[in-house]
Amino acid sequence: MHAHHALLVYAQDLETAPIPQELKKQSADVLHYSYERLSIDHVRDLIRTSLQAPVEAQVRTFVIQAREIAVEGQHALLKLLEEPPRKAQFYVVLPRTAMILPTLRSRLMEAGIGQEAQQEESNFFHEFLSASQGDRLAQIAQMTKDKDQIWIDSILHGAEFYCAQDPLSNQALLSAVLFARSHIGSRGASVKMLLEEISLHL
Q: Could you confirm whether domain 6-113 is CATH 3.30.559.30?
């Protein structure tokens, strides 16, 4: 079992998630939680359960799968991971890479991305990167209008990896990506404008 107390993996479902096979089945010390939208109340319940001692193993492992995470839920989860129970380990399974706030993400160690999710993200970003500036802006307008979160997250994650290839030459792009990461989940934030700024620096 992994030594880190909180791990983040990307996958569409638990079956395809890149986690140890023994964690894909529930047991006395492997608990599964699946949510359409993880809320602050869900995290509060999780906190209470995580304080309980393991039954047989050295640690209790909590596998948390969510399609969405409310901002309030992310703040509550951050508090849990800042001071985690001594005998608890967490796997957070998300379908998209840009779902979480940078502060929460910093508390999680990325442990892998499912092959299907990785390929889909890569395709979206490379198509976007190879398009003209005008076509990119048209894509942004359409995808944000449709609220296509998978596409939006793919562009953000792809831009991050693009920056990582040459950080010195991509400082303006990196600033735009970090700004988008910090504000995209905020109430009233214009996803369209944040992505347009990223597009201009690509």
A: no
